[in-house]
Amino acid sequence: MTSSAQLSHAQDMDELWGEESVKLRADNAERGQLFDEGNYAMFIHWGLYSQLANKVDGKTYYGIGEWIMNPRMAGIPVDEYERLAGTFNPTSFDARGIVQLAKDAGMKYIVITAKHHDGFAMYDSKACDFNIVESTPWRVDPMKELSAACRDAGLGFGFYYSHNQDWTFPGGNGGPEVDENGNSATFDDYFIKKCLPQVEELTTEYGPIELIWFDTPGNMAKEYVEQLVDVVRKNQPNALVSGRAGHNLGDYQTLGDMEVPHRNVEGMWESVDTTNDSWAYAWYDENWKSPKKILNRLIACVARGGTYMLNIGPDSVGAVPERAAWSLREAGSWIQRYPRVVYEAGPSPWGRAFPWGDVTVHGNKLCLSVFDWPSSGKLYIPGLKTRIESVSLLGSEKSESIEFDRVKDWTVLDLPVVAPDSLASVIEIELTGEAVVDKTFGLDPNGSTEIFADFGEVKGVEIINDRWMEKFGEWIRVHPASNWSPKGKVVWEVEVLEPGDYQVSLNYAGSGRLVWGAEIVGGESIQNEQNSSHNYQEFPIGWLNFSSPGKYKVAVSCLEGNIETAKLKSISLKPIVAY
């Protein structure tokens, strides 16, 4: 349980985080405020599947643990899976400890799996006795404890509910086709007897709810989704409904699992990610995100205009893996030092990240999170048009004024040689008005500038959505230029501050050896042959010379080989510096 020292620490955190923290407490937040302004939340995948931890009959199944029952993984029969509940006894579950972890991490609300696709309810459901109170020796409702702990701590609380798939209840999508009496079961049977009553329970028995996170609607008819949304609206008028409810009936968009976009996204949206590779606990999965990677992905989402919900997967006894908790706390300590980077922050006016880091906005102030501190002592910002009032390097105790200069269309900051923060240093630029920028890609004089294909103008080629699983359920997504015609091109406009030779490298996938061409439109052109594979890899192509400062157009073509298989992810340009 939570100690008095931990509670005191929580109070200290609220004081340290100042206005940003106080205004974003759940008990005084308006509908959707924690989502839209808090920008950071905890997702929890925890269920009967956590007890298996991806191992069945001595065999390990690699992939997302919450799908272990499914035929695409272990294919566990319904009766066998239901018997597992008799040994599920998660006595180490600590609701207040998890809430404290979320607060230490800087998160503003928690969403937990009330029922996943396996159909097992992690709360005391009267609609179906396949639940944690009726079917396990523990006989505790952890949702009661967690909702109360969130309220006490000033965090929002919400439920994940799989409304279409149910692999153990007759009639649910993926579930048995007959009931216990051998009669045919329809989706109506599942929806009326279990799904609708359970959503009614979740929205009436656990106090104020911040969010109901429906998932995988599949081919679920609109009329069913409408009924569920109506229940949420009636019982929890201040709650948001996730975009995965289906039929555009949710309040916001949820991107694909583990997807962090590289360009700004309009409207209200979230990215859902996990601290390792699996959502639910998997015994073997020690591929944890470092504190720096968590911050990088969080700030990327906020800078693209969205919210980041990061998952933990408690184990069979309800304990949070310590390495995940450590990374979250370390990242949260950074947020404590620089709360304005995340809370109530707006998207970058450039619409993308820079080679050195990213930008979030507060009114007339730009917050620069510098992950790659320049050894040159110069930080280059292209295309900022609005006049600068001041530049400050933020610290935990006081800010330090930074000198800056205007060189052509670039702003150049003079920085200390050593980064003041090992995770990411923060620079605040105060402007005389709203940020106005030229969004042309500037080629950073300090190193390589990567430009994704979908930022370019395409001719005789298409930008596609390419996605695949590294392991089962572990999605990777890119948006490459594909379906090349013999004269196809991707063209980008770039801004050059430092003229000279630049190394051109291409990141692509394909089949066999491919000949690529790169050119400065109206100027020098190069071409080269490199191998390819189904994996995206970066290959050097050659040097191009930019003779003077200014704007140029750079184009890439796929000239020879199996060009129909070629998929260009990005181009990188790096200045060749003579030492």
Plain-language structure description:
- The chain is α/β, with parallel strands linked by helices.
- The chain folds into 3 domains: 312 residues, TIM Barrel (Alpha-Beta Barrel); 82 residues, Sandwich (Immunoglobulin-like); 127 residues, Jelly Rolls (Sandwich).
- Helices cover 20% and strands 29% of the residues.
- The protein contains 10 helices and 32 strands.
- It has an 8-stranded parallel sheet. Strands 19, 21, 26, 28, 29 and 31 form a 6-stranded mixed sheet that branches.
- A hairpin with a 2-residue loop joins β2 and β3.
- The N and C termini lie far apart (59 Å).
The CATH topology of the largest domain turns out to be TIM Barrel
The end-to-end span amounts to: 59 Å
CATH superfamily of the largest domain: Glycosidases
Number-wise, the strands total: 32
Overall form: globular
| Biggest β-sheet strands, sense, barrel | 8 strands, parallel
**Beta-strand content:** 25-35%
The top-level CATH class of the largest domain is: Alpha Beta
- Any idea what the CATH architecture of the largest domain is? Alpha-Beta Barrel
Radius of gyration: 26 Å
Helix and strand composition category: alpha/beta
Number of helices: 10
Short description:
This protein is α/β, with parallel strands linked by helices and 579 residues long. 20% of the residues lie in helices and 29% in strands.
